[in-house]
Amino acid sequence: MRLVSLCPSNTELLYYLNLIDDLVGVDDFSDWPEEVTHLPKLGPDLQIDMDKVEALKPDLVLASLSVPGMERNIESLQKRNIPHIVLNPQTLKDIQNDLLQVGELTDRKELARQVVESMEAFIKSYKEMATTVKMKPKVYWEWWPKPVFTPGSVNWLTEISELAGSSNIYVDQEVASHQTDWEDVRKRNPDVICMIWVGVKESKMNPDHVRRRPGWTEMKAVKQDHIFVLEERLFCRPSPRLLEGLQKLAKLLHPDIFSTDKKWSFYL
């Protein structure tokens, strides 16, 4: 089967279904697993070259609505009658359902079920450990600094926060992505700041950018130096790898509760 992925999270989903060898092309940002870096590149996820996609004669294209603007890709696929599915996961359960859907379409139904069961067992274990946390820190996730974008309640990072024994300070916003400003973040006074700027390498994210903001020196997270620069690939891509991000965050916040022996992996 000839498969094409138009975003990194879809590419990672295919890895867990043992379908990397069926991939014939990926978007420019797909960088895991390492094998996909040698495949034909089809452009950035918001500027996919549909002529290249069509030339690959795919049996199935995995499109996505995970980033605003990807609607253009879907419109082009429809106009050209290229076989495709559209994934738009917002929660961990959505990711599991996507695994099952793609597994059904690619003759990987049983493997998809196994991955989902493994995810569910791991999530359950973290949910149980999180109930033992007495002091749950408030976390501010920064997707983008200016204008400020942060996940709301309809997003996997709110779930990840809770499973790691903490809470998202924007859980009251019933959206996937919420636009706010530095002053509102300051008023909410988080205990922890997690910098995960989309498309930016960790080496380019300096906590001093946060410390210099008006009034932020009085914020709990800044006073206590609880500013974490985290890997976008483990927190911003809706694929099973989010559970690796969960492991990392939980260990950072509560090392006495979330031990490193509670690891999840379903690597082939």
Task: Describe the protein's architecture and organization.
- By secondary structure, the protein is an alpha/beta fold.
- It has 11 helices and 11 strands.
- The strands form 3 sheets. Strands 2-1-3-4 form a 4-stranded parallel sheet, with helices on both faces. The protein has a 4-stranded parallel sheet with strand order 8-5-10-11.
- The longest helix is centred in the middle third of the chain and has 22 residues, at 109-130.
Estimate what percentage of residues fall within beta strands. 5-15%
Q: How does the helix and strand content classify structurally?
A: alpha/beta
Poorly predicted runs: none
Number of strands: 11
Shape: globular
Helix content: 25-40%
What's the Cα radius of gyration? 19 Å
- The total of helices stands at 11
Multimeric state: single chain
**What is the ordering of alpha helices and beta strands?**
EHEHEHEHHEEEHEEHEHHEHH
Largest sheet at a glance? 4 strands, parallel
- State mean pLDDT (0 to 100 scale): 94
Widest beta sheet: strand line-up: 2-1-3-4
Terminus-to-terminus distance: 19 Å
Main features:
11 helices; four-stranded parallel β-sheet; 37% helix; single chain; 268 residues; 11 strands
